[in-house]
Amino acid sequence: MSGMFECCWNLESIPDISHWKTSKLKNINNMFYECYSLKSIPDISSWNDNNIDKKDKNVFNGVNVKIFNDNLKKFYDK
Hints:
78 residues, globular, 1 helix
């Protein structure tokens, strides 16, 4: 999933991805990188991130700060 939505500058919304099966994910680096137009991102704090070794700052770099604070911070605070 590395780079999945990377540089989707006109992407304004993402369907509910909170129920994706993520137990085998290893790399989500740059997944939402530079998605400047996003107005919301589903709460992904329920994702199983036990095997993710690339959960770094570039995953959400360029995403609106309010969106990060509202939903994505929970993902990092686990």
